[in-house]
Automatic annotation (TrEMBL):
Start and end residues of each ABC transmembrane type-1 domain: 340-519
Name of protein: Glycine betaine ABC transporter substrate-binding protein
Bilayer topology annotation: Multi-pass membrane protein
Phylogenetic classification of the source organism: Bacteria, Bacillati, Bacillota, Bacilli, Bacillales
Organism: Paenibacillus shunpengii
Similarity section: In the C-terminal section; belongs to the OsmX family.
Keyword Transmembrane: yes
InterPro entries associated with the record: ABC_Gly_betaine_transp_sub-bd, ABC_transp_perm/SBD, MetI-like, MetI-like_sf
Length: 531
């Protein structure tokens, strides 16, 4: 018992140390993205990532500013929300975004009028400078396989009217709900609906139609999937889809603070046409090149960047896969370590908060059975909620960023800690508790010196389960604007890029295995001490 009490005392001291560390980390995590002078946000699709790398290269080459890129924000609306909340400073947006209900607009499909409304409206709403277009439009279109177009004589979207009732369509995850240019308005304009709709990441729709999982897909006009799978695009003969001219968008406060940015960002205006953007996307999505390398090569070709800035992976494109993986790890070592560190810190914060709150809740549950049933019911409900649904709910309630992720990890870690504290206290032998009472121990002394030390193996087992769960759930952080190893995984999935997937998945898996081994051994040590 004395040995166990010593271990319990050490555990308590470690817990208080952890609380202090968590307090410091909780302050530092949300501002991690702000460590750079400029933070660029991208959507999930490729061209925004290529353009972000262009911005970064130009800014860091022509100014003394440092740049961070926050990739895979779920949609343009999330990019705008991130700008409004100070998570990012700039990004690439499209003029047709005005049709999503941000402010009152003139109902027009004229490109110049749509652009003017975007520039004026978002300036007034978010204090943004919406630059003139980069030179290409990336609007929606419908596409089918060549044999389907030939079989049904399809050349326009109106030609689908007689056949859509027997067809399935694959669309991106936001189009079904978009109010002005989404599926409900489309069906009203064209007068037909499809037999089924399958929402998915835009990068997956082309493979889906090629594999005959769906018959028609909603495509972006600059996506390389159209070229890769030789799809036939259908003319928007009723001009339903609005123009979507791409522009650089920046917070005016940033330009006021760093006026040299304006000239640098203006270098790309009107320089990238649709064919060029499609080719750049093709190099990433089909040839599996890094967005950074594609961006740097383009800037060098345009005379905007010196060739000495090109990394080794660009100079040796035919390297074997293992060597390419090595190039990737070497060239992105700082970024990957940063994402790993943020991942670890988020998990530690979530676990620490779960211990600080969960242990007292477990003690209350063991002492007061009726209250305990309510606590267990609530933590069980939280535990069974799908992780993506819980994080989405927290995003609405708390906002975007790493702090929201920490709250989600805390909630998911709570049940194992509460339940195992409760079980551990309930398993303490009644005779031992009676002996303690007979020695004149107060209830608090009995809890502190007898019950909690004896329940340590159960508590450590709960912490072990919570840690593994938290490490896994933390990979979903990018979906709500957070960082961590999930950024690499989601970027790889969106680009169908195995090296990026492995660069995120392998460290995440190793962290989970390492946490399980360490906490498992600690749990076994306490079991030995107890026996």
């Amino acid at each position: 018992m004395r040995v166990l009490n010593q271990k319990w005392s050490k555990t308590i001291r470690s817990l208080f140390t952890l609380v202090l560390v968590i307090t410091l980390f909780s302050v530092s995590i949300p501002s991690k993205a702000a460590a750079a002078d400029v933070t660029i946000g991208t959507q999930t699709f490729t061209e925004t990532k290529i353009l972000a790398e262009m911005y970064k290269a130009l800014i860091e080459d022509r100014t003394d500013l440092s740049v961070d890129i926050k990739t895979d924000l779920a949609a343009s609306s999330v990019v705008l929300r991130s700008i409004a909340q100070g998570e990012v400073d700039m990004g690439t947006l499209y003029s047709g975004e005005i049709f999503n209900g941000y402010f009152e607009i003139e109902d027009t499909k004229d490109r110049a009028a749509v652009l003017r409304q975007a520039q004026d409206g978002f300036d007034e709403l978010y204090n943004l400078k919406w630059y003139d277009p980069l030179g290409f439009e990336n609007t929606y279109t419908l596409a089918v396989r060549p044999e389907v177009a030939e079989q049904y004589g399809l050349s326009t979207m109106s030609d689908l009217k007689e056949h859509a009732g027997n067809m399935s369509i694959g669309v991106d995850t936001t189009w079904l709900e978009r109010p002005a240019d989404g599926y409900p308005a489309f069906t009203k304009e064209y007068g037909y609906t499809f037999a089924s709709t399958s929402p998915m990441e835009i990068s997956l729709v082309y493979q889906a139609v090629a594999d005959k999982i769906v018959d028609v897909v909603l495509a972006y006009t600059t996506d390389p999937g159209l070229k890769e799978f030789n799809l036939v695009t259908l003319e928007d003969d009723k001009q339903f889809f609005p123009p979507f001219d791409a522009s650089t968008v920046v917070k005016k406060e940033l330009l006021a603070e760093y006026p040299e940015l304006d000239e640098t960002l203006s270098l790309l205006i009107g320089t990238i046409d649709a064919d060029t953007m499609t080719d750049l996307n093709y190099q990433v999505d089909v040839n599996k090149m890094e967005p950074k390398n594609v961006a740097l090569m383009y800037l060098v070709d345009q005379g905007l960047l010196d060739e000495s800035k090109l990394p080794a992976s660009v100079m040796n494109p035919d390297a074997p896969p293992l060597q390419k993986f090595g190039y990737y790890l070497t060239e992105n070592a700082s970024y990957l370590w940063n994402m790993t560190w943020v991942h670890i810190v988020m998990v530690l914060c979530g676990l620490g908060l779960a211990l600080v709150i969960g242990i007292p809740l477990g003690i209350i549950s063991a002492r007061y059975q009726r209250t305990g049933r309510v606590i267990m019911f609530i933590t069980n409900i939280i535990q069974v909620l799908p992780s993506l649904a819980l994080l989405a709910l927290l995003m609405v309630l708390v906002g975007l960023g790493n702090a929201t992720v920490v709250v989600g990890l805390f909630l998911y870690s709570l049940n194992p800690v509460v339940r195992n504290t409760y079980v551990g206290l309930s398993e303490v032998n009644a005779g031992i508790k009676d002996a303690g009472k007979g020695m004149g121990m107060s209830p608090l002394q009995l809890l502190w010196k007898v019950e909690m030390p004896l329940s340590l193996p159960f508590l450590m087992a709960g912490l072990r389960v919570a840690a593994v769960i938290a490490i896994g759930v933390a990979t979903l952080a990018p979906l709500i604007g957070g960082d961590g190893l999930g950024r690499e995984i989601y970027a790889g999935l969106n680009q169908r890029h195995n090296i990026k997937i492995l660069a995120g998945a392998i460290p995440a898996a190793l962290l989970a295995i390492l946490a399980d081994i360490i906490l498992g051994r600690l749990s076994n040590r306490f079991k030995v001490a107890k026996s």
